[in-house]
Amino acid sequence: PIVDAAQAQRRALAVLVAAQVLSGVGLAMGITVGALLAQDVLGSTGLAGLPSALFTAGSALAAVAVGRISHARGRRPGLASGYLTGAVGGVGVVVAAVLDNPVLLFVMLFVYGAGAATNLQARYAGADLAAPSYRGRALSTVLVATTLGGVLGPNLAAPTGALAETLGVPYLAGPFLLAAAAYGLAALVLAVWLRPDPLLLAREAIRPSDLESAPNITGQIPEKTQHTMHAARHGGPHSMHAEEAAFLAPLNPRTAPLRTLDAIELKNPPTADATEDTTLRIAFIAEEQHHEPR
Hints:
Blueprint lengths: L4 H38 L7 H24 L1 H25 L2 H11 L1 H12 L9 H21 L1 H10 L7 H20 L4 H6 L4 H5 L10 H11 L8 H7 L25 H18 L3
Helix pairs in contact: 1-4, 1-5, 1-6, 1-8, 2-3, 2-4, 2-5, 3-4, 3-5, 3-8, 5-6, 7-8, 11-13
C-alpha cells in the first residue's frame, strides 16, 4: 500500500514525544538521587561519585547496542529494548537498596544507564522521515519533550520517596521505582505505536528495482545539466553522497509521497534554476543505476 509520508511523520513524532517525556522523567530520577542512595547504602561518601561513573559507562555501552539493533531491525526494537533495559536496571537498584547490597547496586546502576543512551538516540528517529529542511525542527521537537520530562522528574522525587517508605522500601530508592515505571512505559509506547518504523520506511524510499524501471530522461534536460551529471558520476565537484541518495530518494512507488524531490542532496548543488536542479536530481539517480556494472 502507498504510505502517506506526512501522516507517518506526524505519527512518529507524536509517539516519540510521548516516550521522551516518560524517559525524561526516568533519566532525571537517577541523576537526582543516585549518589545519595550510594552514600546511604555504603554508609560513607568515599564512593559517592561511583554511581555517576557507572551510569555513564553503562550508557556508553548501551549506545553501541541500541545503535546496532536499530540499524539491523529498525528504530522500534532498538529504542524499546534500550528503555526496557533501563527499566530492569531501575528495578534492580530498588532491590539492591532493599537488600542493602552495594555490589548489586553498582551493577544495576550500570544497567540503568541504558535508558540514558536510548533517550539520546531517540531524537534522531524524529528526523528519519522528515524532509531535509525540517530535520532540525523534528530533532528539536523530540529534544524539548525530553526536557519536559527532565523538569518534571525531580519534582516527583519527594512524593515517590514517601510512597516507597509506605511499601517498606528505602526513601531514596523511591525515585528509582518511578524511573523504572517511566522507562517501562516508554518502551511500551514505542513497541506498540511506533508503526510504521520510521527508519525502515525511509530505507524503502528507493530500491534498485525501482531505479531499473525509472524512465531515461537525460535527453530531456539541458546540456550543461548533463555535464554536471557527468562530473558528479566521475567524482567531480557535484559528487553525491551515494548512501544518502539510496537512503532518501523518492522513486519507490510504494512510498511515493515519502519524499519531496529535494530529499536527494548534492554536496555542492549547481547554480541552476529550481526546475533544472530538480530534473538533475532525478536523472542523476536513474543514470547512476543505469551505469552500474551488472
